[in-house]
Amino acid sequence: MDQSRTDQPATKLIASPDQAARLLRAGELVAFGTETVYGLGADATNAQAVARIYEAKGRPSFNPLICHFPSAEAAFRHVRPNDLAEKLARKFWPGPLTLVLPRQAGCPVSQLAGAGLPTLAVRVPAHPTARELLTLTGLPIAAPSANRSGRVSPTRAAHVLADLEGRIAAVLECGPCQVGLESTVLDLSGEMPALLRPGFITREMLEAETGPLASAATPGAKPVAPGMLASHYAPTLPVRLNATAPGPEEAYLAFGPAPAKGLIFQLSDRQSLTEAAANLFEGLHWLDEHATRQGCAAIAAAPIPSTGLGLAINDRLSRAAAPRAAPLAKPFR
Ligand code: AMP
Ligand code: MG
After folding, report:
1. Which bound ligand lies closest to the C-alpha atom of 153?
2. Tens-digit pLDDT string for the chain (333 aa)
3. Which residue, of 92, 232, 251, 327, has the fewest CB within 10 Å?
4. What's the CA-to-centroid distance between 65 and ligand 1, angstroms?
5. What is the CATH topology of the domain spanning 12-210?
């Protein structure tokens, strides 16, 4: 397995956005400061680099990540804005507001960065060094908070080093974070705008622009936080777990050994968990589409070891296999 990062060279504390941009473009992980907290950045179009974010954080599940851009124009080349999104972007960007919108057709952001969802969370940070870095990199940068899973979000470069030393290539010194709170997350992809995460931009500030917002606390309104529903990521076909081989009517999500024939998506023939994580959502989408078209009865998924990134892969697979919250096909008559 390639889970051990102990052979990683020491993490560099760097002051040059140019050097940080070169590392990001090479697929390395670089933490950088924004006005909210320090983010752990990777090229969002590079699924292996995104997989390494989860590996470095030791996150046991794949949550969709926020993609960062230097301008609203750059962000809106990757997602489809509506009128409200454009209005809020003019008012609050650059700044600590994240908008969830449908992906543009052909959006190059990896499926893993968006956890397989048809929507993407985007933000334009206000911090001048972060914006310089994003401009120099010229890529969408996926960045969750730069801490190990379960630890406190870092607001100084030293916090990042204390937590992630040896696990990431570099930390770009951006000074202490001014806001120190995560960004507000607003979902504009549904019929009604929904506040998914409270943050520095308050509900009142948003409602002055949007009118009443739905949220988990609004009676009758239940916006779905991604990953919360057990079956949220379910393909249309049933999924069978821990299958060492596919049955006669099954498509196969392989991890190493695979039959020579049949409808097969190989996550990683060399059994690399990083590679498997990078391919997971592509694989589920691809198999679901082709298996349905070819009349397969189910998708069988190979056993994945529950170590390192395997935990997050198995979390996602067991959600895909969970009993459905609502019937997906026509009820049996
Ligand atoms: P973090 O990157 O750890 O700051 O967290 C990102 C936040 O944005 C989480 O609360 C996610 O659930 C939310 N988020 C990211 N992408 C999406 C999306 N496509 N749809 C809904 N929420 C999202
Ligand atoms: Mg966090």
Report:
1. 2
2. 444 445 567 999 999 999 999 999 999 999 999 999 999 999 999 999 999 999 999 988 999 999 999 999 999 999 999 999 999 999 999 999 999 999 999 999 999 999 999 999 999 999 999 999 999 999 999 999 999 998 889 999 999 999 999 999 999 999 999 888 889 999 999 988 999 988 889 999 999 999 888 865 555 544 455 544 444 567 889 999 999 999 999 999 999 999 999 999 999 999 999 999 999 989 998 999 999 999 999 999 999 999 989 999 999 899 889 876 554 443 333
3. 327
4. 5
5. DHBP synthase (3.90.870)
Closest Cα to residue 309, out of 300, 320, 317, 301? Answer: 317
Q: How much is the pTM?
A: 0.87
Whole-number Å distance, alpha carbon 44 to ligand 1 midpoint, is 14
d(CA 83, CA 290): 36
Token duo for residue 220:
């009758």
Pocket lined around ligand 1, Cβ cut-off 6 Å: 63-66, 98, 100, 114, 117, 119-121, 144-145, 182, 185, 187, 196-197, 225-226
Residue ranges per domain, the chain?
Answer: 12-210, 239-321
Read out DSSP for 190-255? SSS-EEEE--SS-HHHHHHHHSS-EETTSTT--PPPTT-STTTT--SS-EE-S-SS--TTEEEEES
User: Which pLDDT score, from 0 to 100, does residue 323 have?
Assistant: 76
The set of residues, in sequence order, having a beta carbon less than 8 Å from that of 77 and lying 6+ positions away, is: 104
Question: Whose alpha carbon is nearest atom 1 of ligand 1?
Answer: 144
Q: Which atom of ligand 1 is nearest to the CA of 185?
A: 8
Phi-psi region of 116 (alpha: psi -120 to 50; beta: other; left: phi over 0): left
Ligand with an atom nearest the CA of residue 197? 1
Rounded to the nearest angstrom, the distance between the alpha carbon of 198 and the centre of ligand 1 is 12
Residue with tokens 């230097």: 70
Contact in structure between 93 and 73 (CB atoms under 8 Å)? no
